[in-house]
Design a protein that fits this description.
Helix content: over 70%
Shape: rod-shaped
Structural class: mainly alpha
Order of helices and strands: H
Radius of gyration: 21 Å
Organism: Brassica napus
Strand content: under 5%
Protein name: BnaA07g07520D protein
Number of domains: 1
Number of helices: 1
Largest sheet: none
């Protein structure tokens, strides 16, 4: 009975960690995309010499 309880608890925490990691990864990707876009528009709007 104890082993089953521990397995469930371990699985739940693992799932939570996975969700947290996915969220962190998504936020990091979103920020890098925004930085890339900002850099792209900065280059685009720079007067051509």
């Amino acid at each position: 009975m104890c082993i089953v309880g521990n397995k469930k608890k371990g699985y739940r925490s693992l799932k939570e960690i996975g969700t947290f990691m996915m969220t962190t990864c998504f936020i990091a990707n979103y920020q890098s995309v925004q930085v890339c876009q900002a850099e792209y528009f900065r280059q685009l709007l720079k007067p051509v010499t």
